[in-house]
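Entry: Tuberin
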Amino acid sequence: MISLINALMPSVLTPRELPTESPLPVRSSPHTQPVRPSVQPPERTARAPASFQCILVMRDLLALLSPVRADSMDPNEEAAEERSHIIDGKSGCSYARQAILQWLVRLRADRDHRLYMVKDLDAEIEPFAHLINRTPLRPRASDTPAAPEPRIRDRERERRNRGMTTTAPVNPEGPARTGRNPERGRASDSRSRSRQPPAPPPAVVPIKHTIWSIPDVVPFDVAFGTRPSEGMTTYEQRVKPSDDGLLPQLWLPVSAYVCVMIDLITCETDWEILSYALCHFPVQMSNKYLFCGPRTRSAIIRLISELCTVVYEDKLTTHIGPLATSLKATDVAGLAYHTLTTLMSYHRTFNKQLQDDLLRTFLRGLNKNTTTVKPCLQALAIAAFELQPSTTKFLGEIVDKLSQIMSNPTIAGYILELLCIIGSIPSLYANFTDDNYRRVPCPVAESYALTQHVFILAYYQIYIWFLALKLQDRPKHIPYITRHLLLANEHYTQVDEPTELENVAALGLGEQVTGEIVEAATEAISQVQTESGSNPSNEAPVAETPNIPSGLLSPCSIAPPKEMELDPSYFALQLSPYPDIRRASLRGRLVPNDDLLGRTLRSLDRVPVMDFHKVGIIYVGPGQTHEREILGNRAGSPAYTHFLDNIGRLIRLKDQKDLYTGGLDQHYDSDGKYAYAWWDVIIQMLYHTATLMPNREGDEQFAFKKLHIGNDYVRIVWNDSGKPYRFDTLAT
């Protein structure tokens, strides 16, 4: 049957009369109602018969895959009764259902919603399979090697005899050591009366064979690999509803497939099937072109609601029974959290209640072990951008929970990244009080247990949240920040220089009144002194701090500073006691005329006051696989253009002096007239967009584009090729 549908998908048949009866859904559901036939567009008539047959075969496969549920069938429909009979007869074979599921999870769609299949999913599935011991990197669920796969006849015989015979446990020591030997005499029988009867032997647990693992072996041939089908699609936006308001059934019933996956997650009894679905379905859901249409959208909403319920109530493995000894319920929950994270990309269809349920489910995952905490932290970082109203609502609880689990060094980096993201979005913490700010975790007290990257990220988080404070509230938080900074040095005899400079920066920032100018200058002081490790005294020098790249390629890439005129009142404001109006005396102190101080002040002019970053963006068009084809694109799809509009702001490169240009030409438009950039008060990010750069004459290898994009540490690939992107495509 799978070979049949593989053969039908890309075929184009001759026109013939269409069947008068449209295919029925696999089960009665508000998301999979029967669709009546309507007049087909002329351009689709030639392939409509093949499409109809694909739909019939697809629904039969879904019927075989769906778990046995009496309430999922409508007894009033003959088709439903027939399908129910099929399920009762054949759905018990795990190998058959596994083969169907292996074929379904490999379906993909390109930007025109044309179907194609991918064969090798091991690289994408391995992180999920690793959680449940299905990879060779970790031991299996059982310490003993798995038995060889039984032959087909053996499987049939075992299935027929299942439950009909019971084999008594065999005593390994033979009949001479049995509890009751009929050949024993009366004396021995009487002597054993006073003894306690032997304990009954433990119940024999049947051994379940593992039918899938990584690398995954499929029992069918993906004949058409990554070639998009011209005869079968999943959705077509250009098709208009008929007079009765229904859409013509021209595409594969993806909504019915989503409903079957809901049944697998909520009531599946076979762990092999459930584990395979939880590992592979998140990867498939990331292909949003496959899951389009109003009915599929409704099915996805129901999927999220059901999944949130079973995960929040810890009912994901209720129907499975006891798991293997090496597996925990939290390992299975970790797979479900990864699925919810992927489903968050469909947030445009969520209502407020569903968004709250998602955040509440992720918040509950922070109470468990590392298996669930990591995906929940990553999901909350995405929710900070995509689900801002609900994130704002639960932000207080999130911060409280993060402060409780901050002591775990294995997840400290994830927590700091989440806090930095939240601190960069002012709308999230707009309602924060002083107590909320103090509850933001301060990990520098445990800095001796953290890596250098996490250590630097912790100080960066302090910058972010200190700048988030209102100007008049900063002096109130200085003692709290100073105390935690000193706690980072409680294991040392002296306060290290970076921490001491951090204290100075905090004290200085707390007494400033200007805003961005003074904030940026103070941060620059901290950066230059931290990196140079200046030690004015004759004490032993501190350990050399790693030199963090500033993002500047050369001095010529820095735009000349724009001349600014300072208002004379600025200096008077610096000497006034404002905002601390309780202070009686003026602020400020005389500085010594010292050469060291002069060199330090002069070095400030050479240190950027902001962090600069460069990111490359590449568009891969339909069917493109080679470097020259990809770099030669001058435009992309509408979805790609929408992505660019939301990732940053379009800036003019010529004579650009206000923003970091990432090495792009600012005088002759040799790298294009425009570029996308994003910035805030402490970060500037420039995107090297390949489609905005010109294709120069004589540059057949696009060396000038590779000069910029090839040196970017981060590259974003928008893949519309219909094929998996190979990361070695762009040679650098």
